Amino acid sequence: MRRTVLAVYAALLLGGCGDPPTPTPSADKPPASGAVASASATAAIASATATAPPAPSEAPTADPVESATAEASASASASASASTKVGATSASPATSVASAAPTASASAAPTASAAPVTGEEKKAAAYSAFMSGAGSYKAGQPNAVTAVVKALGEFKVNQEYPFKFTLNAAPAGVSYPETTVRNVARAGKTATISIPFTPSSAGSVTISGTCSLSVCTEAKCLVEKVPLSITVKVE
Q1: Is residue 195 part of a domain?
Q2: What is the pLDDT of residues 170-206, one digit of tens each?
Q3: How many domains does the chain have?
Q4: 44 within some domain
Q5: Does residue 76 sit in helix, strand or coil?
Q6: Would the pTM count as exceeding 0.85?
Q7: Is residue 161 part of a domain?
Q8: Which CATH number characterizes residue 192's domain?
């Protein structure tokens, strides 16, 4: 038994000390021609990229925000310019109107002679009567003065009575289209008669005549004939 073990051990030692078997070289496949061509092309591109001068860069793309800002600024400048022109243009008429205003105001201001005038008032317990007219009249133009009757106290203008104004003879330089005027207007406690006349020359003229009037209470009516007159200026 012991000898057998030793023999095996010796065989093992002898087998381990021998030269190791030389491996059989495997036949490697030659590289494919396509792979070699691809590698060569890649190397050529890398070399060209490294050596070629950098291509000129494209023009920078405009920033949309900056473009919009620039356009808005240009539009604002144009609007401001237009507003300035419009303001300058509209300022001239305003200045002209302003400069013309004093002249217009001065010419429109009424003079003292344009104030209305009244003739002598005839007054009684039941009424008052007088004539009124403008401060001045134009020669050669139809004009008018007015006879005015006012009821006083408890009296009222008689709504049924035919008021009239009978003119006296026309003074020099005055003509009447009618000598008896009946166009009366009644309003509340007042009655008025418009008396037309036409002056032919400048100066002061007196229009006169007799006013036939009537005023009433609930109990009675009064009928009166009152002489009235007014002096007016003709230019």
Answers
A1: yes
A2: 999 999 999 999 999 999 899 999 999 999 999 999 9
A3: 1
A4: no
A5: helix
A6: no
A7: yes
A8: 2.60.40.10
